[in-house]
């Protein structure tokens, strides 16, 4: 992680969730921390405190002063022993890449240049994250060109982009050859979104668990559901001459599963095929994206500085 974020360290704010020892720099999560009330932000762990007590008075804290500061013990409490994240996996196509998120913000005019806009934009971003099947963009009436509120419009199931509001539909101002169906209400859509999201999360977990199992299974008659199918995908991937780039549907399916696993995997010794390669590929893509972003920001700042200098 340190190697990954080192080129971007100027763009990050480091937050320590626990106190770190001023001597050995480890995070103190148990025992006691020894605090100096005279010095600002000076804490040491039990091990370093024991080592300091064996030093001469002139070598103890503070080392650059003749004075001797007394260290006071403080019990470390409230640190959970289990830190595994048990929250559901939230998947959304708008957060897979920076460009997809940028398109979402541009299409809905989400901005962060003021506190008020940042609050609204953050609220809407969380809404799209928790409601992945909800419409991402505002629907516009094809007759009067006004925005259509949720559950207050009619849609053509055949044409890809034909919606009308209730007002135009009731006035009879719609001249369309196909049948129009009413937009679902907020309650109905929320219920559908919740059920679809739970089902999608369950399917995703089962698929990733199956992928990990199949990569380590050596049994020829394994009873794990669909284990043989995934092993067959592995064998096909090694023998296929068409490949995913050539349009092979089985190869595309296998690579989709491997990419999903690589994004969520945190095991450095993972046995899933190509997991390490995909992690490295994703890391390089992220670094390239960050480099382009920093270059764009630097160019923008340079242009602003030039404008200020000329005025």
From TrEMBL:
Stretches assigned to the CBP/p300-type HAT domain: 1-134
GO cellular-component term (any): nucleus
InterPro entries (alphabetical): CBP_P300_HAT, Histone_AcTrfase_Rtt109/CBP, TAZ_dom_sf, Znf_TAZ, Znf_ZZ, Znf_ZZ_sf
UniProt-listed Enzyme Commission number(s): 2.3.1.48
Reactions that this protein is recorded to catalyse: L-lysyl-[protein] + acetyl-CoA = N(6)-acetyl-L-lysyl-[protein] + CoA + H(+)
Record-level GO BP terms: positive regulation of transcription by RNA polymerase II
Record GO terms (molecular function): chromatin DNA binding; histone acetyltransferase activity; transcription coactivator activity; zinc ion binding
Classification via Pfam families: zf-TAZ, ZZ
Keywords attached to this entry: Activator, Acyltransferase, Chromatin regulator, Metal-binding, Nucleus, Repeat, Transcription, Transcription regulation, Transferase, Zinc, Zinc-finger
Domain ZZ-type: 16-79, 136-188
TAZ-type domain span: 194-278
Cellular localization per UniProt: Nucleus
Region (Disordered): 286-311
Function: Acetyltransferase enzyme. Acetylates histones, giving a specific tag for transcriptional activation.
Protein known as: histone acetyltransferase
Organism expressing this protein natively: Aegilops tauschii subsp. strangulata (Goatgrass)
